[in-house]
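Posting here for the record, re: zinc ion.
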Amino acid sequence: MIRYALACREGHDFESWFPSGESYDAQAKRGLVACPACGSTEVEKRLMAPALSRKGGSPKAAVEPDAKPETALPVPSPMGGPPPAAMTLLSEPERAIRAMLKAVRDHVTKTADYVGDTFADEARRMHYGETEHRSIYGESSPSEAKALLEEGIEVHPLPIVADDRN
Ligand SMILES: [Zn+2]
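Prediction output follows.
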C-alpha cells in the first residue's frame, strides 16, 4: 500500500491509499481519483509517503511536540477596575457660579411677586397686556413652561441651588 498526498486544482489537500504507484496512475487517468471536497478528478500527487510497517517493536517516532505557541498573557489594563463613580468636588469657579445662581435666585425671590401655581396664567396676562408687567415667579409644570415659550413668552427656570430646601 502506498499513500499519496493529493491536491485538486482547487487546492484541496487530501490523502488516498493505493495498492501501488501504478494503481494510482491508472485510477487517476480514468478519473477515479476525486477530490473529496469538490469532486474534481483533476488531482495531482503532492508528495509520496510510503506506509512503513513498524514491526519489531521499534519505538514510534517521537512526535516532536511543537513548541506551544506563545500564549498572550492578559496585559493588565492601566485603566482597569470599575469605572469611578461620578463625584464632584467643587472647585473655586463652580463655587462662584453656585454663589451667583443663589444670588440670582435670592434677587428674584426678593423683588418678584410670588404667584405660586398661577405663574403660567399671570405670565400670559402680562404678555397679552391684561395686567401690568412685573416680575413674578412661581411654579409651572414643564408642559406649561413649554406652552409659554411656544407663545413667545420668555420664562426661565429659577436656578436651583443645593441649599434651597433649608
Ligand atoms: Zn477539491
